[in-house]
Amino acid sequence: MMEECFNPKELIQEIQGQHLEKAGFNSTLLGEIQTDIGPCPFIRLKRKTGTGIPKVLLSAGIHGDEPAGPHAVLDLLKKISERKILLPQINLDIFPLINPSGFLRRTRTNQDGFDLNRCFATGHPPKEIRIMMNYLKNREYDLSVEFHEDIDTKGFYLYEHQPANVSETDSDKWGQEITALLRKKGFPINDNPIIEGMPAINGVISPKRKRRSFFRRHGWPQAFYMHKHGTSRTLTLETPPCISIAERVEIHIETFLFALSKMERSFTKNT
Ligand SMILES: [Zn+2]
């Protein structure tokens, strides 16, 4: 049984307690975020393997009431440290827990009431997002993966934003492959033709241009910011609460590793 942790400081401590140097990671303290139990370190993990290989960003815990994401990061790092998972040749940045105060309170927003995933275009974003944007503004990734959950869904779904130059062949539709893979493993998929007000196919939403005006009104989510700053491919994963935390963690990790293998293959194909 996976033990669920709701203490952000303990979760970060546990992440830092993994022997990740051996796996090529280092951890950097980027700041501290106020929570009800005092300041919590805001960290970024980095694994730099070389140049000319894919650059990937993984982030989790921007919504405090979606615990599977940060737990999936911890579990992934544990498995890497125990060499149960061998990462492919990629450069990887990880934000393991973006909203520690909301994580502690189990709320979507941070403790000041901000939905952090709508704050990527404001002039004075909350500290969590300011720290992230300072780091991200001059960086382009080949892939950005976000671990989320949706308390209203009965099955997994995802948002997929593909590079503009990708041809519309089936092999380039990672999202379709991901939901097919998860379905085969017995996980529930949200098959509604409309999810969150947008057309969906087999649990995959591909946001279209018309969303721009929506974001202008409601605030930018991280995926839109990443896209605007040159990250060509983003995947936002949404797990359903009706299955156990261990299963939701498994979905996130499986999907992430699948995306990495696709990334690695598409790179070797193009070089
Ligand atoms: Zn979310």
- Examine the coordinates and then state which fold CATH places here, giving the name of the CATH topology: Aminopeptidase
Largest sheet: 10 strands, mixed
Briefly note the structural class of the backbone: alpha/beta
CATH superfamily: Zn peptidases
Topology as H/E string?
HEEEHEHHEEHEEEHHEH
Strand content: 15-25%
Q: Could you list the spans in which at least 5 consecutive residues all have pLDDT below 50? A: none
Shape: globular
User: In whole angstroms, how far apart are the ends?
Assistant: 43 Å
Number of helices: 8
Total E-strand runs? 10
Question: What is the gist of this entry?
Answer:
With 271 residues, the chain is of the alpha/beta class. It has helices spanning 8-16, 68-81, 100-105, 127-136, 174-184, 211-218, 222-228, 245-270; strands at 25-33, 40-47, 55-60, 91-95, 143-149, 157-161, 194-195, 198-201, 204-205, 234-239.
Defining key terms:
binds zinc ion; hydrolase activity, acting on ester bonds; 10 strands; 271 residues; ten-stranded mixed sheet; Aminopeptidase; globular; alpha/beta; single chain
